[in-house]
Design a protein that fits this description.
The chain is of the alpha/beta class.
């Protein structure tokens, strides 16, 4: 079966390599054009293997679509695609296209599915391989796999430790199902669907009066992007690695309780947040204790 891979980054590269290892004839690849002197990992892997590469944005133009069709694909495997692709392109392969999404659809449609699952306090998420249609993550389901969200998980840990390796396996399994003619198309229950916007700074502001569990979920759901933020002396301070302790201490929410060598503690409504890594505005990510000493943060200061 002739397969084309549409994707990018490390996940796209991993899916490309896995399909070739599993004996699929990968006839071509679509990936973002090199930027800033660096090739996308999928682009680089395909080029090194002598597989034709078409810039993803060209698939919106007639010339690019003709080049894609000329590859004579049986199936398109979409591994981490952020561009809006014309539906006509998805219908070009003889057997259609299948797409990876990092949630248990119909939950968390949209581009920040992992973020919102954590922010909303879910204890389980997963991935879906589905048949894309003209909607946003609305097509029928081919297969799903679930995984837990731990109490201290971040977007980074859920993706890289679970959804990335599970996703590579699932994409290969789904392609094999299509090859073998075992192609379920399970309609989504649209009445149960949720859709959230891309998780951006406007959603990532820390409200120190929130219950401790909710505030902690926000920070974890914005780590590593976009980074939950508060302000210190008029400038944004992003909080990344941290832990919610079971301690309860007196004070107003947002009050700094202590500054230690590698961290500082902030009183919350229902717990204490031990901050381990931060990023000051215009700076790099650094240890929270180091930043606190340089910035002059001391016990008694109150974030608002």
């Amino acid at each position: 079966m002739r397969v084309v891979v549409m994707g990018q980054a490390a996940f796209g590269e991993a899916v490309f390599r896995r399909l070739r290892e599993d004996g699929f004839d990968v006839a071509g690849v679509s990936a973002p054009a090199p930027a800033g002197g660096r090739e996308d990992p999928l682009w680089a892997a395909a080029s090194a293997a002598g597989v034709p590469v078409i810039e993803t944005r060209r698939l919106k133009e007639a010339e690019g679509q003709e080049a894609w069709a000329a590859l004579r694909p049986d199936l398109c495997v979409m591994a981490f695609v952020t561009e809006i692709i014309p539906h006509e392109v998805l219908e070009l392969p003889r057997l259609g296209s299948i797409q990876y999404h990092p949630s248990l659809l119909p939950l968390h449609r949209g581009s920040s599915a992992i973020n919102w699952a954590i922010i909303f306090g879910r204890t389980e998420t997963g991935l879906t391989i589905f048949w894309p249609d003209r909607g946003i993550d609305t097509g029928p389901i081919l297969l799903q796999r679930s995984c837990p969200i731990g109490p201290d998980d971040t977007v980074g840990s859920v993706y890289f430790e679970r959804l990335f390796p599970m996703g590579v396996d699932a994409m290969a399994e789904a392609a094999a199902l299509v090859r073998d003619g075992k192609t379920p198309r399970i309609p989504q229950d649209h009445a149960k669907a949720t859709y959230e916007p891309p998780c951006r700074d406007e959603h990532a502001g820390i409200r120190w009066h929130e219950p401790a569990d909710r505030l902690y979920a926000l920070i974890r759901g914005c780590n590593p992007q976009p980074g939950a933020w508060t302000t210190f002396e008029g400038q944004r301070l992003r909080i990344f690695d941290c832990r919610l302790t079971g301690d309860e201490e007196p004070g107003m929410p947002g009050r700094v309780l202590r500054v230690e060598e590698g961290s500082f503690d902030v009183r919350l409504n229902g717990g204490v947040l031990r901050v381990l890594r931060v990023q000051p505005e215009g700076g790099k990510k650094v240890g929270a204790g180091e930043w606190a000493r340089e910035a002059g943060l001391a016990a008694g200061y109150r974030f608002r």
